[in-house]
Design a protein that fits this description.
heterodimer, A: 317 residues, alpha/beta, Glutathione S-transferase Yfyf (Class Pi), Chain A, domain 2, Rossmann fold, 4-stranded parallel β-sheet, 13 helices, 10 strands, 44% helix, 11% strand, B: 327 residues, two-stranded antiparallel ribbon, 14 helices
Chain lengths: 317, 327
């Protein structure tokens, strides 16, 4: 039996335009002995756009997704920063507002569901760091990434707003012998890693890179926005933000970039040519999903990690 | 009990530039012992009083309500008179802190920036109550506690500019109003006494300057020292546009509405169809080079292979029953 077991909320992108993300997540989880139960009943999280149109509908749908993790009595993991934020924002609103929760549950009752708030929601990145453990991950490395300068690109929705992420990455310590106030203290799970992710200097991805024995690139844009959510309506803005980050990584000698967000990945990987035109410079940089990078270091075959689906050729493999 | 003051020896690397005399900015470093209660504003004062009288910065109330003393420390926007220095040392795990103005390209002198664009954009959104007031009222205008709560703390904004200068869209799109301005527009739109909601919504719905150009990066929420949550107010303005029937039929609004169409049909988002629905059949042609590149790599799902959520009937039921917004 697997030591770690989660309900996996894939989001839409990993089922469509980034199939390699789902492939590599499943391959890495299998290799590390993490059991993932796919939430095939889940719907789209709204990606922060449905929320602009119909806030209540997005709450109901996201609550429904969490219900399915609760039915399995599992905590949920996500593999998309935007899915993570939208789901955790729903959770935060419902857990802190009984009236809103009952309005949502009134709707969910129509399909025989009830949101209770019993499952936590965390990104796979933090599940690996906090639950699996970086030391244990480092022990599994069979193909160290010593030869590579790797630029971590964090993506907005895993690091901001930090108070929300910090709150949902905490667990309540059980009441110790004798009880007392200390028994109720909340312990940040990230405490051993910079006391929670600092959005102005995030370190989690860099620490994973180091655990895989790669060289982490220090560059200013690692915690900046790629512009994805304005791609259609404000392409120039989006291209400039994507291009600035890519060129910053390149100018700091990155051999590749890694991101935990498939939406950042789409901008960074697929749009390099159009972004290069906007920026007036050539841009060629392989972009890997986080589980693809981990998988390579664990010795999983590139094909199994879906590297054939990456548009920016990962020629170093 | 010892009366010895506990301090830490810290280094402050400080951005210096005088637009009247300097061609290039430079950094000056100051070292000092800092006590656990000292604020960033204390450090700015000490640099001026103890090291260099020419060092310039804005300060006024010292109580976190005037917004004058905002700067960046190690990239983090702070209100100097509220931000404890030791806390920054803990956050960044360092004894060297970089003091910078909110925006380097707007610097007049050292920490002082020109906020002209910030205020001009504010003015365009009527940041005040517009109401016909009887000059000799017989009774007060009543606002219920529930109505006051609808401001959602937007009136806590002190216009410090931390969110505005942290916003990446402001940096690349000069006409973009910015998060503080939208928070202020929301504040008066949500006020039951105000009569200029339509005028403000006409402004904020404009493509380019308006709310649709927000990249949803949450930099503004992170930067705000008063927990105003500007991006939350931007979302509320999006909602108001649809609720008031003022959302124009354009790529941005169709992009938002397209999610509902897709979810009803598949449970999941049909990414390809969303682009077509948002851009129109002709508009989608500009994405052709990327679409071809993605197709070659097996990243385009054909309509006949579009995955669907299990229990799609449940999702359809919930959309029908929960969705009240029309477009």
């Amino acid at each position: 039996m697997a030591e770690l077991k989660y309900a996996l909320y894939t989001g839409c992108t990993a089922r469509e335009s980034t199939p390699e993300l789902l492939m590599s997540t499943l391959a890495v989880a299998k290799k590390l002995g993490i059991e993932l139960v796919l939430l095939d009943e889940a719907s789209c999280c709204g990606a922060s756009h449905l929320q602009d149109f119909d806030d209540f509908l997005s709450l109901v749908l996201n609550a429904r997704n969490i219900c399915y993790a609760e039915k399995q009595e599992l905590n949920m993991v996500t593999i998309c920063n935007t899915c993570q934020l939208n789901t955790v924002m729903t959770k935060e609103r419902l857990d802190s507002d009984e009236n809103l929760k009952s309005q949502v549950n009134e709707k969910l009752a129509e399909v025989g569901l009830e949101y209770k708030g019993t499952s936590s929601v965390r990104h796979f990145l933090y599940a690996i760091i906090d639950d699996y453990g970086l030391d244990k991950l480092a022990e599994q490395v069979v193909k160290p990434l010593d030869d590579f300068n790797i630029a971590a690109f964090y993506g907005c929705h895993n690091i901001r707003p930090s108070h929300l992420h910090r709150k949902h990455n905490r667990v309540e310590r059980g009441v110790g012998e004798g009880g007392g106030e200390e028994g109720f203290e909340e312990v940040p799970l990230m405490s051993k890693y910079n006391d929670g992710e600092n959005p102005y200097n995030p370190t989690s991805l860099d620490r994973i890179i180091e655990a895989l024995r790669g060289k982490s690139v220090d560059y200013d844009s690692k915690n900046k926005c790629c512009g994805f959510h304005a791609d259609l309506q404000a392409p120039h803005t989006a291209h400039k933000l994507t291009g600035t980050a890519l060129l910053d990584a390149i100018d700091n000698n990155a051999d590749m970039m890694v991101t935990p967000c498939p939406l950042c990945h789409l901008n960074m990987d697929v749009k390099q040519d159009s972004v290069a035109k906007e920026m007036g410079r050539d841009i060629k940089l392989p972009i890997l999903h986080l589980p693809q990078l981990i998988g390579l270091a664990l010795g999983i075959e590139p094909q199994e990690l879906g590297l054939q689906h990456n548009v920016s050729e990962p020629t170093f493999v | 009990m010892s009366s010895e003051r506990i301090t830490k020896k810290l280094t402050f690397k400080t951005f210096r530039f005088n637009a009247e005399t300097d061609f290039l900015p430079y950094f000056k470093t100051y070292e000092m012992e800092v006590g656990k209660d000292e604020l960033v504003l204390d450090i700015l004062n000490r640099i001026k009083w103890e090291f260099d009288g020419s060092f310039s910065y804005r300060r006024s109330c010292r109580h976190g309500i005037c917004g004058s003393c905002s700067i960046k420390v190690n990239g983090k926007p702070v209100l100097s008179c509220k931000q404890n220095v030791w806390e920054l040392v803990d956050i960044f795990d360092t004894d060297t802190l970089l003091l910078e103005p909110q925006s380097r390209k707007r610097v007049v002198k050292d920490m002082i920036i020109d906020k002209k664009d910030f205020w001009e954009k504010h003015a365009k959104l009527k940041p005040y109550l517009v109401a016909e007031i009887d000059e000799h009222p017989k009774e007060e205008i009543k606002v219920s506690p529930h109505e006051a709560e609808q401001l959602l703390e937007a009136d806590y904004c002190i216009q410090c500019g931390n969110c505005y200068y942290a916003c990446p869209v402001v940096e690349v799109n000069e006409e973009y109003f910015g998060p503080a301005q939208f928070a202020k527009a929301y504040r008066f739109n949500a006020d039951v006494r105000d009569n200029a909601k339509t005028e403000r919504l006409e402004k904020v719905r404009e493509m380019g300057p308006g709310v649709w150009d927000c990249v949803k990066c949450f930099e503004c929420a992170e930067a705000c020292p008063k927990d105003v949550d500007p991006i939350g107010k931007i979302t509320k303005l999006h909602n108001q546009l649809f609720e008031e029937g003022m959302a124009q039929d354009n790529v941005a609004t169709r992009h938002a509405v397209g999610f509902k169409h897709s979810i009803v049909k598949h449970g999941l988002l049909d990414e390809g169809e969303l682009v077509r629905y948002s851009e129109g059949t002709l508009g989608v042609m500009k994405h052709l080079p990327e679409a071809i590149a993605m197709f070659k790599k097996g990243k385009i799902v054909m309509p006949w292979n579009m995955p669907k959520s299990e229990k799609l009937d449940e999702i359809k039921t919930l959309v029908k029953s929960s969705s009240k917004v029309k477009f």
